[in-house]
């Protein structure tokens, strides 16, 4: 992140528009550091107006996850408070995959993905459009093949 971005994020955090979850103050300014989530760990958290503005009227919260080439993962995002959107981002910020509504017809999100490159990824929790925020549950699971 360049100095301009750090200055902007420092101002946003100071005004309550960015989450302390994703940025940490260091001797060199703000550094982007989303909380680490391990496979199988369930995170219960809250999406608020103090999180990262999406530019579309909603907000997002980021979590880092280390994945290995060949991993098959399921990312499950549940909320009774908002229409969820889950996005998997590569280290360079490009979108690897995303899911809005799960296969059960609800507004929860369920994403399945085979990882093609080892590295640290970002799981972004978002409210769809301007739907607000609230409580959510996030779980990233490495799927295991069935032995026959």
3D architecture notes:
By secondary structure, the chain is mainly beta. It is built from one helix and twelve strands, in the order H-E-E-E-E-E-E-E-E-E-E-E-E. The protein has one helix at 3-14, and strands at 23-26, 29-32, 35-36, 42-47, 52-53, 59-67, 72-78, 84-89, 95-99, 109-114, 119-127, 134-142. The strands form three sheets. Strands 3, 5, 6, 8, 9 and 11 form a six-stranded mixed β-sheet that branches. Strands 4-12-7-10 form a four-stranded antiparallel β-sheet, with no helix packed on it. A two-stranded antiparallel sheet has the order 1-2. A hairpin with a 5-residue loop joins strand 5 (52-53) and strand 6 (59-67). The longest helix has 12 residues, at 3-14.
